[in-house]
Write a structure and sequence with these properties.
This protein has about 350 residues and is mainly α. The chain is built from 13 helices and 9 strands. The longest helix is centred in the middle third of the chain and has 20 residues.
Length: about 350
Amino acid sequence: MKDSLLNSPRVLPAELRKTVDYILATQLPDGAIPWYTGGKLDPWDHTEAAMGLSIAGEYQAAERAYHWLAQQQLDDGSWYANYFPGSAADAHEPVHQALRETNFVAYIATGVWHHFLITGDRQFLADMFACVSRAMAFVLRYQSDFGEIAWAVDADGRAQDDALVTACSSILRSLDCVCHIAATLNRPAGEWRAAADRLAHALMAQPERFDRTWESKARFSMDWYYPVLAGLYRGECARQRLAARWQEFVEPGLGCRCVNDEPWVTMAETSELVIALMASGETNKARQLYETLGQWRDQDGGYWTGYVFRDNTIWPAEKTTWTAGAVLLAADALFELTPAHELFLKPRETYADTI
């Protein structure tokens, strides 16, 4: 049963309320949340936007988003990388059927657990359990003996033979979330716990298992801070990791760069870095970085995706719903708006002694 206090309408600062309204205005009647009106959607960013709705107390809208995922789930537990809304409200054609990205598939576990933390709705958790379980079973088919998980799968179910630090860090947090879901519902989770420990070991001790077939992705800021969001680094270790490359990625007064070699700050990366700073105990830095976000909010509450400071240009000229969702998650981590504010702030659990 839902706690009546948790289920009551949530009062947000006016600027955040407009951001929530921006997501709601973009969401389609069947629950799908495109990047922007008329744009595509992908399962990961769709879920990020739904998490923003949960933070705002828009529970029915968030649940429509998760039920949309359940309805679109393929027989093997996965989703295509991208969908494009058709002319009818309930028509969504896959844009890219050649690949299915494993971290996109896994992220539903994070979203569903996040929604439960806020609402306390065990029935929702139980209703979504089969969908989440199928998704995680799909992902774990592509975990190697070394622990890393292939970044994508082709149309014939063959794994792309490489792994990404950012993607695997996101999957690791989703594995922790599905273990929490299982514990709450008194379901077995031994396979997921073992997979999480193997994946964590690969991320921390086997860097050679990542970026094997292409140039290193270390130029991307997500590779820098996502292991902190995954709970692999905490305390002084997290602070040292973030400090080591701070000047590469953070542009004072503007935000976090997407990559260290381009003059481009992006608002989702800035929001995620705010959460990583909170997880490392750097509250003052997190507040200062969060304050840079306000300049990128449009009058309708949406946030521009990025800004090229060399050219003084908003680029791309898009206000994405997943950026809005990331801003709301950062605000929750910073200001403790919901019972889920610590989701990305806690260190990951080690399951080796409990399997």
